[in-house]
Amino acid sequence: MILAVDLKNGNIFENENGQMVTVISYQHHRKSQSRAVIRVKVRNLETGSVIETAYRPEDKFKEVSVEKRPKTFLYSDGKMAHFMDDQSYEQLECPVGKMGDALKFLAENMKVEGLYLNDKFFNIELPANLVLEVTSTVPGVKGDTVSNMMKMATLNTGLEIKVPLFIKEGDKVRVDTRTFEYVERVTQ
Fold first, then answer.
1. What's the rounded Cα separation, in Å, for the pair 41 and 35?
2. Would you say the pTM of this structure is higher than 0.90?
3. CA gyration radius for the chain?
């Protein structure tokens, strides 16, 4: 059993309705004279829908054990994302609606972790940071050296993020997959 106060981003548990959910975001709220409340945003693993709810810190949930197996992303046809199991070379599908924002980070032949619940493939897990290439952005103007200035850039997966002015097309950048934010420029 897991207490609501012990929930963290990425935890998978069975909620009060018997649905398997994963924690997207978690906040602990306490107002001066009232009881503490745990506010969570969770994604239903079966339907892909996102639900916001609140729990008391002492609420208990059944923790679900998930097995991880290496996968390679092949392609997406708009309705299904296609993966290959790196051990058995079996091709598997996952509905795009279930994957949420993870699809925005996937490029062909990218290695990911496949998540299995009761020996059934249901979703993927991305690393916390990914290195992606900038395919288009406006050029920075010489003299724009203010450190907090940002501009929009499109990455090789089609994702658009804000990057510092010194980033140019062809640069590789590290992106946080949880917050969609630029982390650093990668030089190799």
1. 20
2. no
3. 19
